[in-house]
Amino acid sequence: MKTLSKQRGFTLAEMAIVVVLGGILLAAGLMAGRGQISRAQTQDVLQIAADLQSASLSFKQRYGYLPGDWIYTANQLPNITVGGTGGTQGNGLIEGTMTAAGLATAVNEVGVAPSQLYAAGLIGKLGTNTQMRLQSPFGAVHMAVANAANTSAAYVAANPGVLNAIIFFNLPCEVVIEVDRALDDGVDTTGRAMGIAACTAGGSLTRYFVPL
């Protein structure tokens, strides 16, 4: 006569080990996923900076002036009927100010610079908000004179040769550090690419500056 062997279930200790291992694997997967997202976001910011630097250089080579600072000439750019205001056109500075939320005056040099690049066919996309035509995944992006009002006194002191900067609003600190490593010295408070203040882990910077 055959005897049936007894089936033994998991002990509490074994179940605990399975739960712990599952938690570790889940956490590792989440961290890997966040890392991939962060790398993709960093690449977006780097691409925006590179595109604006290249487009602005091409614009200056073609028209003799930087976008926004361009001295208006009728029929040179399609759908552009006036030049930028709020500064001296043709002086090499993209003049104007922005609010803390990243809104520029629509008609000043900062506000019109993206539209002029777009009209010249040097960038492919333009937002509908006239005060914030360019955006990263996190907030506004502007090209502006690198004075203390738009950047910071520390940035001006450290980079007297930088006349204009690309200003990113509200970048997460983890993205800032990766961007700084790619473009500069990996320290967000020194060098040619800098933030308005020191980054705090898990936080964000209201403004981050890259030379145009």
Give your account of this protein's structure.
With 212 residues, this protein is of the alpha+beta class. It has one domain. 38% of the residues lie in helices and 13% in strands. It contains four helices and five strands; from the N terminus they run ααββαβαββ. It has helices at 12-63, 109-119, 153-158, 173-183; strands at 134-135, 140-145, 164-172, 194-195, 204-211. The chain has a five-stranded antiparallel β-sheet with strand order 1-2-3-5-4. α1 (12-63) packs across α4. The longest helix is centred in the first third of the chain and has 52 residues, at 12-63. The N and C termini lie far apart (89 Å). The mean pLDDT is 90.
Spatial ordering of strands, largest sheet: 1-2-3-5-4
Give the CA-based shape.
elongated
Roughly what is the average pLDDT, rounded to an integer? 90
- Contiguous low-pLDDT stretches (5 residues minimum) are none
Q: What share of the residues lie within helices? A: 25-40%
* Strand element count: 5
* Integer-rounded radius of gyration: 25 Å
Structural class: alpha+beta
Straight-line distance between termini: 89 Å
